Amino acid sequence: MILVLLLLSYAGFTVLRNPVWHDNRTLFREMVAQAPNSVTARMNYGEALFAAGDYRGALRQSREAAELQPGRYATQANLALALMAVGRTDEAISVLRRAARLQPEEAIMHVNLGLLYLQVGNRALALREAEAALRLEPGNPAALKLRDRAGG
Asked: Is 70 part of a structural domain of the chain?
């Protein structure tokens, strides 16, 4: 009898928690509500918002995560992507430069930074970033395309 009651109580709790598992946005929003200082929860929530096209929400969560852990490459990279998505190119460049200092061996960071330089019309810096990415990952298709677009 005790086992049956225990199983029924677990089943009841499961049914009550099912709405939280509806989708990633719902799940990670709940995680942030439960643990507002969790960098992982904020990053995951920001990524879920970004994937859903809510770039302003993604920016808000990414900024919070980056403020909680400013020395972490992933928080800076996510913040830069969110800034790019809302058209804040100059700020995104600044954040990606900071990310480059944290983890200079990330080829995709150099490609993204080069793409931003292209957006602001600086082909020389875009080419420099393409070359940096290619030194790290020779043959990287995104870096090769960036180099071509930058005129290299």
From this structure: yes
Q: How far apart are CA 64 and CA 75, in angstroms?
A: 9
What's the CATH code of the domain at 71?
1.25.40.10
Number of domains in the chain: 2
Calculate what percentage of the chain has a pLDDT beyond 70.
Answer: 87
Q: What pLDDT sits at residue 42?
A: 96
The band of 14, judged by pLDDT with boundaries at 50, 70 and 90, is: low
CA 106-62-116 angle, 5° bins: 50
3-state secondary structure of 84: helix
Separation of alpha carbons 8 and 64, rounded Å: 39
CB 121 within 8 A of CB 127: no
CA–CA distance, 126 with 41 (Å, rounded to integer):
33
The pLDDT confidence band at residue 25, using thresholds 50, 70 and 90, is confident
Question: Which domain, by its residues, includes 145?
Answer: 104-152
What is the rounded distance in angstroms from the CA atom of residue 74 to the CA atom of residue 66?
Answer: 9
Residues 80 and 125 both lie in one domain: no
Tracing tokens 């928080």 back to the chain, one arrives at: 75
